[in-house]
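Example record for the data management plan.
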Amino acid sequence: MSDMVTVQVEGALGPTRKTLPQAIVLAWQTLRALPLGEDQLADLRRLFGSGAEERIRAEIRKTGKFEVCFLPLGGLEELQTVQITPVGVLTALRR
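Corresponding structural encoding:
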């Protein structure tokens, strides 16, 4: 897998090309700014924290993408998605 990926956070960050480590940092910074409950934020912190690069790289090798859903607090009642894919791989966000 090339180290260049596209990262997007539904409703908060459009598709952005970065290296995988940069994409992880950007996804986490974006998620931290969203209205999330304490438990959900803690789960996402573990997912995007220590060891994230290895976990995400393994998932991309296995399935072709890394995707995780979350539910912002307040007005929104639909799950939203964080997606990281190799550059050049187009996938629709889950709906």
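Summary line stored alongside the record: The longest strand covers residues 13-19.
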